[in-house]
Write a structure and sequence with these properties.
With 386 residues, the chain is an alpha/beta fold. The protein is 42% helix and 16% strand. Helix 4 packs parallel to helix 5 (136-146).
Length: 386
């Protein structure tokens, strides 16, 4: 009998990273892929990206609607509650042998809680990381404690998972999945990329992704407005925006992007969803990534471009020398821009090493899912550090 591997995806970003793993499971004679799609994938506001999953040839076993129309703190809490109810029914129906969860979003928290009560083992991808400025920090570590297998990107993150009481024999260092995805993607040539996004690149080009600051003392509106003021002062610079996620205040940011693009139609464009191939292709041609997305830390260094990391959202994560940290203030952002384009920094970029590049993350994860014994129950002892 085939081992049933249930993968849950809720966002375009994480789907792009786990898609190769899904392909390998589909091709395997030993494994059966079960796919649950939820979160932003099912929202018209975020592009109904489940269609892309179906276009890629995957069969979706279950669609779980759990995002409410608002993005207030109370609505996010209610979404988690709704998700737990729906995941409980779905897991009872599918009866997977193991559930695979990626990262730290609230959709994954709901799935982890339901899986934990159903006594279904969880394989958690990319745990052990730290993002002090985001509520994702507590969600990620909570999922770690509910998970049986852990696939982490670096030695530092492996150590942190073990520090949380997880047995080292169940913590596998595989490297960053973003790096693995880059190596497996047939990136577009410049002309084809321009045609794909219907946008002409300029003398200077920046890719901007800014997500809500869920734990910051300043509002997301205030911080993002400071970024827009900095971008507005740039000359001969074309700007590609990708929309924010469904966290609290995400809709505010997206509305501000729309207003900016409307006023700067000659040199700015915004995308609800670029698609993973277009996004990675963009990293070939832009001068840098600006905002507070993990992509600027995990993927951009592989293209030897700079990242302007704004605010505290990614505070605590491992960073390459290509990352420039700055405060969410116009002046600080402008100084970071000046550094990005400086001769000295551009020279340093040529030697940048991505700390998340450990090679062949997909193969390592797949082999564990295929060959390791899955426990008959989720009982585990707390591992005390010696």
């Amino acid at each position: 009998m085939k081992r049933k591997i249930c993968i849950i995806t809720g966002t375009r970003a994480e789907y792009g990273l786990i898609m190769p793993l899904m392909n390998e499971i589909n091709k395997s004679h030993d494994l059966l892929l079960q796919l649950i799609v939820t979160g932003m994938h099912l929202s018209p506001e975020f592009g109904l990206t489940y269609r892309e999953i179906e276009k890629d040839g995957f069969i979706i076993n279950k669609k779980i609607e759990m995002i409410l129309s608002a993005d207030t703190p109370s609505s996010i809490s209610k979404s988690v509650g709704l998700g737990i109810i729906c995941f409980a029914d779905t897991l009872e129906e599918l009866q997977p042998d193991i559930v695979v969860l990626f990262g730290d979003r609230f959709e994954m928290l709901a799935a982890a809680i339901a899986s934990n009560f159903a006594k279904i083992p969880i394989a958690h991808l990319m745990g052990g990381e730290s993002t002090v400025g985001s509520i994702d920090e507590s969600i990620r570590h909570s999922i770690t404690k509910m998970s049986y297998w852990h696939f982490v990107a670096t030695k530092q993150y492996r150590k942190r998972v073990i520090q949380l009481g997880e047995n080292p024999n169940r913590v596998f260092m595989v490297g960053g999945m973003g790096v693995d995805r880059i190596m497996r993607t047939n990136l577009l040539k410049k002309k084809n990329f321009r045609n794909a996004i219907n946008f002409t690149l300029g003398k200077n080009n920046l890719l901007v992704t800014f997500h809500p600051v869920t734990l910051g003392k300043d509002s997301s509106r205030e911080q993002f407005n400071e970024l827009l003021l900095a971008l507005d002062s740039l000359k001969e610079t074309n700007i590609i925006f990708t929309y924010s996620n469904a966290d609290t205040d995400g809709r505010i940011i997206n509305s501000m992007i729309d207003d900016f693009v409307t006023k700067h139609a000659d040199n700015a464009i915004g995308f609800i969803s670029m698609g993973h191939r277009n996004y990675l292709s963009a990293l070939q041609f832009v001068d840098g990534v600006v905002g507070n997305s993990s992509s600027g830390l995990a993927e951009a260094p592989s293209f030897r471009i700079g990242t302007i990391n704004i605010g505290e959202r990614q505070s605590g994560r491992l960073k390459a020398e290509s990352v420039i940290d700055c405060k969410p203030l116009k002046r600080s952002i402008m100084l970071a821009m000046k550094k990005l384009y400086s001769v000295e920094f551009q020279k340093k970029l040529k030697k940048v090493v991505n700390p998340y590049d450990n090679g062949s993350a997909l193969e390592k994860i797949f082999e564990v899912l295929r060959s390791k014994n899955i426990p008959s129950n989720t009982m585990k002892s707390f591992y005390d550090l010696k």
